[in-house]
C-alpha cells in the first residue's frame, strides 16, 4: 500500500486579492453627499445633491455585493479544496 500524500489546496490567490478593491473604495467613499458633489465638480462633472446621494448608495451597494460574493466564494471554494 502507498501512503496518501494529499495536501489541501489553498484558495486561489485571485480570491484572496479580490476583496482589496471593493474594500478600499468602500473605505474611501465619502459619507456626505456634498463631498461627492465637490469631488465630482473637481473632476468636471456637475451633480445635484440628490444625484450624489443615489451615486453614493449605488457605489456602496455594489462594493458590499462584491465583498459578499468574495466571502461566499472563499467559503464555498475552501471546503472543496480540502
Question: Could you characterize the architecture of this molecule?
Answer:
By secondary structure, the chain is mainly alpha-helical. It has one domain (13-81). It is built from four helices and no strands. The protein is rod-shaped and about 70 Å long. The protein starts with 12 loop residues before the first helix and ends with a helix.
List keywords for this structure.
4 helices; 0% strand; mainly alpha
List the helices and strands and how they pair.
Blueprint: H1 13-17, H2 20-28, H3 33-42, H4 49-81
Helix pairs in contact: 2-4, 3-4
Q: H/E series, N to C? A: HHHH
Number of helices: 4
Instruction: Name the beta content range.
Output: under 5%
- As residue ranges, the low-confidence spans are none
Structural class: mainly alpha
Mean pLDDT comes to 81
Helix fraction? 55-70%
Main pleated sheet: none
For the termini, the CA-CA separation is: 22 Å
Cα Rg? 20 Å
Count of domain modules: 1
Please tally the β strands and state the result: 0
**What would you call the shape?**
rod-shaped
Amino acid at each position: 500500500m502507498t501512503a496518501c500524500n494529499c495536501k489541501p489546496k489553498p484558495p486561489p490567490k485571485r480570491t484572496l486579492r479580490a476583496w482589496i478593491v471593493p474594500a478600499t473604495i468602500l473605505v474611501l467613499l465619502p459619507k456626505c453627499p456634498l463631498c461627492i458633489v465637490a469631488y465630482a465638480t473637481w473632476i468636471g462633472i456637475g451633480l445635484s445633491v440628490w444625484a450624489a446621494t443615489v451615486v453614493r448608495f449605488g457605489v456602496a451597494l455594489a462594493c458590499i455585493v462584491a465583498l459578499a460574493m468574495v466571502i461566499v466564494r472563499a467559503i464555498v471554494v475552501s471546503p472543496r479544496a480540502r
